[in-house]
Amino acid sequence: MIRLDISTIIFLYILISAIIILVIWWLFGYKGMKRNPQRDTDYIWICSVCLHNYIDSKLKDISICPVCGSYNKKEEVGA
Question: Hey, what long-range contacts does 12-19 have (CB within 8 A, 24 or more apart)?
C-alpha cells in the first residue's frame, strides 16, 4: 500500500483540479474566440496620399494618416 501524507494528497488534489480546469478551458474557450479574418481587415487603412499602411481601431468612415496627416475615407474593397 502506498503511504501518503496530507500535504501530498492536497498537492495532488490541486494539481488534478488545475489540469481539469485547463482542459475544459482549452476545449470550450477557444471555440468562441475564433477570429473572423474579414473583421480583422476592417482596421487596416491605406493612405491615399502617401500609400502608408496603418491600423486605426476606431472603425470610423474617415481616418487620419499618422505619417502625412491627410484624411482618408474607408472604401469597400471588392473581391
Answer: none
To the question of pTM greater than 0.90 for the whole model, the response is no
DSSP state of 60: -
Phi-psi region of 69 (alpha: psi -120 to 50; beta: other; left: phi over 0): left
What does residue 42 show for φ and ψ, rounded to 5 degrees? -70, -20
Residue 36: is its pLDDT beyond 60? no
Compute the C-alpha angle 49/54/59, nearest 5°: 105
Q: How far is CA 35 from CA 5, 38, 70, in A?
A: 47, 9, 31
Cβ(52)–Cβ(46) under 8 Å? Answer: yes
